[in-house]
Specification:
single chain; 218 residues; alpha+beta; D-Maltodextrin-Binding Protein, domain 2; 2 domains; two-stranded antiparallel sheet; two-stranded antiparallel ribbon; 9 helices; 8 strands; 14% strand; extended; SBP; Extracellular solute-binding protein; signal
């Protein structure tokens, strides 16, 4: 797969995965590891054993590149819901970028071990996230690729446009750009649930106007 196509893939995959918090990685035509965004600011490179080495002109809407997207699933998801998300991604990716995405969820407890086994075993995985806390081990094993050379391309500029200059280079260390933040926190919902009777007893309901905003939380 040509570097220009890889760059496009990285930018598009990153944009598509901002809500999911996933990272991207792929391989160029010479088997050189390349990588995209991680769970925080790290990225992994893998050698893809499928048709990734073909040039980008080999793919079309009728014959898209099959991209395996591994990610950490922190909560058990409904199969139908996961399939609906995958179908929605492909409705956009196939006609626009000639890429068919296959989602590959993995549990958090098994992710690091399974991801490394997949890489060492030559499994067909194109995209996988790397948590910042585990980045050092990936760097030491040569699983991280410097993304700097891609940033001067049109697709690299698309990453800057999507994240902003500061966040786009947040994954840099000692002049090496290891990856891009997923920014999943921007779209994740958070909150605190408390018993209504306790809130009433402590005066929290009145103090914070919880009853007034009740419809917002129902």
């Amino acid at each position: 797969m040509g570097k220009r196509f890889i760059s496009s893939l990285l930018a598009v995959t990153m944009a598509a995965s901002l809500a999911a918090g996933c990272g991207s990685a792929s391989s160029d035509g010479n088997g050189t590891d390349t990588a995209g965004s991680g769970t925080d600011t790290a990225s992994a490179g893998t050698e893809v054993s499928t048709g990734a080495a073909q040039s980008d002109d080999k793919y079309s809407e009728e014959n898209p590149y099959h991209l395996t997207f591994a990610y950490i699933e922190f909560y058990q998801q409904d199969d139908a819901a996961r399939t609906a998300v995958q179908d929605a991604i492909n409705d956009y990716m196939i006609p626009n970028y000639h890429i068919e995405v296959e989602l590959l969820p993995m549990e958090s407890a098994e992710y690091q071990r399974k991801a490394q086994l997949m890489m060492s075993g030559g499994d067909a995985v194109d995209v996988l996230p790397i948590q910042a806390t585990l980045a050092t081990s990936w760097i030491n094993m040569g699983g991280i690729y410097d993304m700097t050379e891609f940033m001067d391309t049109e697709e690299g500029q698309a990453i800057v446009d999507a994240l902003g200059e500061e966040l786009a280079y947040a994954g840099s260390m000692n002049g090496i750009l290891y990856g891009f933040p997923a920014n999943k926190e921007y779209v994740e919902l958070g909150g605190l649930c408390m018993r209504a009777d306790i809130c009433d007893e402590l005066g929290i309901t009145e103090e914070y106007g919880l009853e007034k905003d009740k419809d917002e939380y129902d």
